[in-house]
Specification:
Blueprint lengths: L4 E19 L5 E20 L3 E3 L8 H9 L3 E6 L10 H16 L6 H8 L6 H10 L3 E5 L3 E5 L18 H6 L14 H7 L1 H30 L5 E6 L8
Parallel strand pairs: 3-4
Antiparallel strand pairs: 1-2, 2-4, 2-5, 5-6, 6-7
Helix pairs in contact: 1-2, 2-3, 2-4, 3-4, 6-7
Length: 247
Amino acid sequence: MTSTMMKIEAYAKVNLTLEVLGERADGFHALRSLVVPITLSDTVTVERAETIETDTGYGEKDLCYKAAKALGVGAKISVVKRIPAGGGLGGGSADAAAVLRGLNDLYRLGRTPEELAEIGATFGSDIPALVLAQHYRRPVMMEGRGEIVSLADPVPHAHLVLANPGVHSSTPEVFAAFRASTYPRPLNDLQGPAIRLHPEIGRLLAELESLGARERRSLEERLTALRRSGWHGRSSRVVCSPGRPNF
């Protein structure tokens, strides 16, 4: 019996490192970032349909809609949201990655995760990394504007505290506020501009550091040493076809 519906967990991500390497000719910034999947997730349900419908309220602008359209299939898509928007956790991109994976299985399209990542690169910069991270449950090194993705070596299992000060931090606005600097730099080059735009983030970071500064510094020291040594943890690499995402 052919299945007509499927539920998929759309796992969020954290960027353990994020380097802004400069502005590209196409207007995007070149990045290098270690993306790690976490257990926080939205639940995405996809059903076979003649047309494409989503319950997000964004219509054809929705990344989930674009995912179904890119695969060339009809779908009824619903999302139970748990990942906060505008928190840098990849919520919308995670949902789109889950739609690609779910519809690929539901319609038995036979696309590999790497092929789905390449499709995702045509309409979202974070989607290729999230397709691979969700499928393999492994860290991913993301480069370029996001179209170059590589499975990275596993990182030790850890419990994370996600703290959200209740602000929506727009990715384009944060990039617009970015100013290149010399070392020493934080593990996330976008931390400074995000704090300048939203001082609440800086206050929350200071409070967290006061509660567990030693543990945070230990993690930063280890990751900084790895970054400066040139470690990328790469075990395989996917270079998606060039294409400008539609946002």
